[in-house]
Structure to design on (300 residues):
């Protein structure tokens, strides 16, 4: 059960990561893409068993073709928020032009937002001059593929290390005092939003909807959206008007979700308000992060 809880937490943090990249790119803050490279390095060291993986851009400026590499394992990664087929081809062309096959035998393209629905790979290996093999199904990745890899890990210590790495970057919790348990009835949640307690409401809804993967995915997206809002607020990278509009949209999305709580979750909310903890069912993250479900989430 502890392992599944850790996997669920990893899924939540990766979901926040994806949304923050999308949100920052939408307002032309491209620095998040560079930050992403450094966030990903220690995580990929664990997931792909690449202990010597480094950010090549820190060693050589703007490294052409690839961003991360482990020269011992001979594995390289291109990290990008652009999911287009043209981006994949451009990466492979650069890999060939600079003879990177002399240092790396495996190349992954990791999309820090989301992959396209499909890729036409008719000339991928021609672009590589058949120097290495590139399979669109194995070597083009996004966070859903990372979650599948994590879900397959049997070493719980490794999973805990990944969880701790992501938690350090993306955990935005407002802890409730132990002597004052949160009240999670629907009216109370709505009242807390009106009082400006968005973070507390998100945390309560994450716990409350743990047994409903669709609603939980929607809350995770709003949680990522709120984390991005807070970072922009703290860094002063967006105007007060823009931030006010964004916070209002987040709160409206949360109100809509609260209103849609099914009867059994609404009953659990009332029970929790009286002191009874809601029943939680931990589900595998690859099911929670079904891409179709996320695309259809309530995201105003």
């Amino acid at each position: 059960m502890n392992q599944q809880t850790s996997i669920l937490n990893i899924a939540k943090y990766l979901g926040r990561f994806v949304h923050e990249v999308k949100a920052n790119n939408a307002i032309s803050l491209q620095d998040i893409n560079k930050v992403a490279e450094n966030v990903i390095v220690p995580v990929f060291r664990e997931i792909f068993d690449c202990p010597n993986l480094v950010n090549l851009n820190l060693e050589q400026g703007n490294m052409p073709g690839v961003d991360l590499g482990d020269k011992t394992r001979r594995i390289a990664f291109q990290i990008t928020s652009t999911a287009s087929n043209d981006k994949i081809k451009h990466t492979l062309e650069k890999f060939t032009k600079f003879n990177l096959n002399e240092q790396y035998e495996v190349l992954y393209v990791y999309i820090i937002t989301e992959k396209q629905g499909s890729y036409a790979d008719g000339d991928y290996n021609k672009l590589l001059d058949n120097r290495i093999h590139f399979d669109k199904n194995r070597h083009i990745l996004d966070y859903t593929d990372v979650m599948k890899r994590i879900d397959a890990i049997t070493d719980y210590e490794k999973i805990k290390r990944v969880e701790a790495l992501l938690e350090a970057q993306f955990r935005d919790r407002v802890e409730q005092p132990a002597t004052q348990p949160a009240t999670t009835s629907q009216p109370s949640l709505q009242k807390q939003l009106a009082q400006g307690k968005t973070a507390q409401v998100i945390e309560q809804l994450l716990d409350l909807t743990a047994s409903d993967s669709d609603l939980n995915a929607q809350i995770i997206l709003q949680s990522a959206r709120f984390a991005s809002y807070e970072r922009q607020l703290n860094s002063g990278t967006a105007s007060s008007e823009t931030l006010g509009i964004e916070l209002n949209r987040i709160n409206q999305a949360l109100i809509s979700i609260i209103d849609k709580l099914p009867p059994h979750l609404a009953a659990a909310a009332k029970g929790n308000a009286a002191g009874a903890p809601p029943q939680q069912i931990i589900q595998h993250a690859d099911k929670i992060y079904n891409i179709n479900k996320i695309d259809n989430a309530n995201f105003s």
